Every structure is written in C-alpha cells, then in structure tokens.
Amino acid sequence: MKKSALLLMMIFLLMTGFSQKSPADSANWIVYDSTNTPMPGSFIFDVAIDWNNNKWVSNPSGGIFMFDGTNWLNYTTDSGLASNFVYSIYIDINGNKWFGTDAGLSKFDGNSWITYNTLNSNIPGNEVKWITSDTIGNIWVALAYEGIAEFDGTSWTSYNFSNSPLPNACIGSITIDANNIKWIGTQFKGMVKFDDTNWTIFNSQNSGIQTDIIRPIIFDQDRLWIGSGIYDINGIDGFFPHKPEILANPVKYHDGVIYGISD
What class has domain 30-255? Predict the structure, then answer.
C-alpha cells in the first residue's frame, strides 16, 4: 500500500488509553480511556479493526472491548474468553477473532467461543503473546516461553529451542509476509527468519538491529518494521535485506492503519 494510504488514519496505543486522529482534522484527537468509556482501566495492550470498522481493544483490567463508533460491548471470561488478561488480538480472513491471553488462545466467530490451552489441545504453552496467519490460513502464535506454534485447524506443530534453530524460546511477536516467510521476534536473541526450511538469525552483532529484545514486527511492502526495547519501544528498525536503517515509531500496520506505542 502506498505511503499516502498509511496517512488515512492513525491509531496510537497508549499507556493511558488509545486515541484516534485523522490527518483531515489533525488539530483534534479523540482520546478513549477509563473516563469516557466502560473500560475499567486505561492500559491498552492491543487494538484490531474488523471488516465492519469495529475496534477491538484489549484491556488487561477488563478483557476485550468492542467499539462500533457509538456503542461499547465487553467480552470477558463470563462470555467465553480464556482470561481477561489479553495480550494480542488477530482477525483472520474469515472474520474470526483470535485472542492471545495468559491462559490460552481464544477464538470467537461472532456467536460461539472456543479456547485452546495445554489441557485440551497440543498448544505447547498458554501465554500467547502474538497471533498471525500464513498464506493458506493457518494460525501461528508466539508463546512467552515455548517458542512458536502453527495450528491448521486440527493439529498443532511447535518449534522451540530444543527442536529447531530458534535461539530462544521466549517469543514476543511473529509476522508472516506475502511469500509465507515467518519473521519471529525473540525476547533476548534478536529476530529470526524462517522460510519453512531455513532459519536465519538477525541480531545486534550481525545486523543493524538496535537490541536483541524484539517487540512487534510488521511487514509493509518490502520493509519490515521492528520495535525493540524492554518495557517501552526504544526505537524502530526499518529493515531491508542487508540494509537496516533506524526509522520512526509505527509498530503495527493493518489495512491503511498504523498503530503505535507512546511512552
């Protein structure tokens, strides 16, 4: 998508809620936090936008909130969510909502819920930090301590420190590009490229990545945007093969929308 399309709308995830800005009205921001929404707290982990332009917001104090522009709906463990502590949100090509929690992976199809955890499936861990899908629709998750895992709708395939060249099993993010290449952000060992056969590691010693603690990774045309840091985003690496360069601070891109984190 052209750079001009990226400017259509910007939504920033803040530690004090989230806000929306349109360049057509750049002087004004609409801030959504605990003072003007049903969210019990203002700490936001993730936001996703569905095909109907509904915003799905993860609030660790209250589960998931869906905002249609006027009304708010709240989904919690009482609804079927695995846990009210939600790290990540992903909406697949069929419109299913996937939620990565500290107690498993929950899927919501608009009517019913199903949760995958270590008790009822072969997912290797319950703490799901990031969710994405590949070019054939399989779901991939980044796990806090057990590497990454692929779900084809029936069975799980896991990759970790012991059965693959992953340099670390503590994974914070994963994204998949149009060529079905997996880009994996580890917590302490840099970024990993996996093409289903070969594994390549990029770190602060062999590339221009700022630190080996990788946060969000997104793919925009021929560039990867890599957030790095411990608790806050220290910076963004705009990565081309053999030509990393440090850029500004967008961290998640979807359908013309840039998400970011502010300190």
Answer: mainly beta
